[in-house]
Here is the input.
Amino acid sequence: MLRRVTYTAAIASAALLMGAPASATAASSRDIQATHAYVEAAYRALHAVVTTWPKVEASIRKLDGRFQAECPHVGEGSPQDEEEQKLSHEVAGALWATGYHTDASIEQGFVRAIAPLRWSNPVVNRSARKLVASLNAMVALTIPDVCADVRAWAAGGYKAVPASTAAYADHVDSIEVKEIPRNLLIAYARPSESGLIARTEKLATRFEELEFERGQADWDNLLEVLSLGQ
Here is the structure.
């Protein structure tokens, strides 16, 4: 679950295109231009995400404060079973939605930059379309009423979570954010882009550090506020 408790994971993954550019002499000009635009868009997005990370944390603190005010320890004494797991996933969804809403302009800018790109390889094009669709889906996520859903679960004797909770968890789990595979793009990178790629990878590393340090901690904290298990 930790790897999915991210706010712009797709942008970070998209940045990690390759370790070193290969010769692009055999690639078409369209492939080369599309790949260059993709790398540039990833760099801009990552730079923005890392620079404005405190905004995401501020939004998460507001979500925490909302739970603290509305339903502290609402799940205390609840069983740790498959139904509780659905609520735990719903909490993760609330985190994702909060983060993606906060960084919506960044993600949308990234999507606008890569959506028109086309490569000669249809597999790359399908991968790019899936990435765009998944990012749009994450930005469109709603923040569920977790407090009401845990109360409803308790009122029903902890037998089953509300149908809306199960549906939300299934929907979020169905969103698979995957970057364009690097092995498909490596042939289209120009040697002159090595510096840009290195800077992008450095930002991606920093993003992953932030994700690791805060993602799990934020999720654990919200679950503790609600007295729910993972």
